């Protein structure tokens, strides 16, 4: 938390630093002008004034990234303060040099001048900070700038109150005396301070004193009594501070906050990272994710193609992980095992796919974590997201590291000592700056490039992928039905041409609509958090179980039907598998449904063959019962992104009336390229008119 004491102290430090920069600039100019020059330098005018402006901007950047983390100014020794001044000067000079070279004006500013300025600034700033600490702040505390306070307390609470007040050298306040509420001891001394009044006369006596405020330590007094004192002291024009009762929790960080209009004391295992820093880290992570997104898209396509050729199945593996504040989420990775991995392992063969071996060797199997970063479940850099078994066995110190989002990389990328990692992560949260992130990135990249990565595929990780593949094989068993009821085959030439068009059109659409896909992804995440995509099991051609992807348009708890739906809506859902004015739909979900944009991710289903552009809409297993024996005919063709029922009727033809079944059967009986083209054109018209979309 950014306390008022820290804020006001840093204002004084800021002023001292900036004055030091101006003084150092003037001294450096005088020194350099009296030294022999090598070459031509413009000593006066725009360029050297620009140097000073860049130095000030460098200090502002340092302030944002580093100085605002510093709450140790009043506690540091003189030698430690020299190190703090050196850190500030280093940041400022590095930013100046970067600007000079990027702006191609390094020839204009003397390198000797930069060196002189750095040395002078270090000395002047160090002396200024020592002067502030030893002279200015004590003067402020003893002068008119500090707030003179009379403390109202019971006799037994005096020592405890003084201990709390003096625990931090708060120069903003000075104690002018006490009022002992449960004892008449006026004009006596308590712990070295005068007792200035009694409970009976304190309002009148304090009104005549040269004090600014009163601090009320509530003991046995009722809320009504405290409120009466508040009104009385306010009439005197005094500031009133009332101590908040709180629990003394060992090794915890306490801070004041509000929940709505309710003031609260918040307890944290460690001091929380300031919101400003959380925002900077989040922006940095998102920018990095966007930079690597094109690489991810290319590798995704390559991986998906190789997987479909060698071992068809899901491209991604999802693993349960524990994130910030112990929230569970699904972490994405590329599948590196074949779908028959268990059988191959028993036979003594490699369980890895060809592309899986490459992904594992290059660590690119973790690239899908960009999805987790974009969706807000992870950041680029942070603590390692533990599995549930690992989390259960973590120490409280290790769990403290989950006060921020877990990272795709972190200290754990270059160290194996868990205790040392926990210490480093605590220090990272308490004193974060962008330099730490850059150092972690460089160290991780260096280890990967030198093939000295600390990655270990432990038994837990391997077993997780085996379990995932086992579950997929079990749940992915084709629907059992009588295939002999419908045996008519579609034209082979028609199917080949249709597949070619599916691949070309879906690939073209993905490329052209990639900005729209990215924007919608961000909007869905921004609406209520969580994953932007939703995968639902459907019945595909020949009864194969396929996962159909959409942009998530419903709340994250949409599966709790009885909680969210009225009895009438629940009855409609059981009959039609959809609901009018569905209360589970989010704000952005309502828009993408009406415009049918929620179905854009199905372009990837089309590209990889589980859907076609045109065909009967894919159904869930419960819907197969509605078709009876006609289910064999319906499943004889590949389901589609759009179809005859969807383009020409949609919500106007329902299962209850039997019209939807008839329209789907009509398409199966009359499927042709001409009909497909008509359906595509009609779909465009329906989307533009928003006919029947929900």
Determine the number of helices (DSSP H or I, runs of at least 4 residues): 27
The N- to C-terminal Cα distance equals 45 Å
**Structural Rg:** 34 Å
What is the number of independent domains?
Answer: 4
**DSSP strand tally:** 16
| Mean pLDDT value | 82
Q: Low-confidence stretches at least 5 residues in length (pLDDT < 50)?
A: 37-46
The shape, in one word, is elongated
Largest sheet: 6 strands, mixed
Strand order of the largest sheet: 3-4-2-1-5-6
Strand content: 5-15%
User: What is the helix fraction of residues, given as a range?
Assistant: 40-55%
The class by helix and strand makeup works out as: alpha/beta
Please give a structural write-up:
- This protein is an alpha/beta fold.
- The protein folds into 4 domains: 139 residues, no CATH class; 97 residues, NAD(P)-binding Rossmann-like Domain (Rossmann fold), CATH 3.40.50.720; 186 residues, no CATH class; 214 residues, no CATH class.
- About 1% of the residues have low confidence.
- The longest helix is centred in the middle third of the chain and has 36 residues.
- The chain contains 27 helices and 16 strands.
- Helices cover 51% and strands 12% of the residues.
- Strands 3-4-2-1-5-6 form a 6-stranded mixed β-sheet. Strands 7-8 form a two-stranded antiparallel ribbon.
- The radius of gyration is 34 Å and the shape is elongated.
- Helix 1 packs antiparallel against helix 2, helix 1 runs antiparallel to helix 4 and helix 3 packs across helix 4.
Secondary structure layout plus pairing:
Layout: H1 4-33, H2 46-65, H3 78-102, H4 111-142, E1 147-153, H5 158-166, E2 173-180, E3 189-190, E4 193-197, H6 202-207, E5 213-216, H7 223-235, E6 239-242, E7 253-259, E8 262-268, H8 275-310, E9 316-322, E10 328-334, H9 341-346, H10 354-362, H11 369-374, E11 379-381, H12 388-392, H13 396-399, E12 407-409, H14 418-430, H15 434-449, H16 459-475, H17 492-512, H18 514-528, E13 533-539, E14 545-551, H19 561-564, H20 567-576, H21 587-594, H22 602-607, E15 612-614, H23 621-627, H24 631-634, E16 640-642, H25 644-648, H26 659-670, H27 673-689
Parallel strand pairs: 1-2, 1-5, 2-4, 5-6, 11-12, 15-16
Antiparallel strand pairs: 3-4, 7-8, 9-10, 13-14
Helix pairs in contact: 1-2, 1-4, 2-3, 3-4
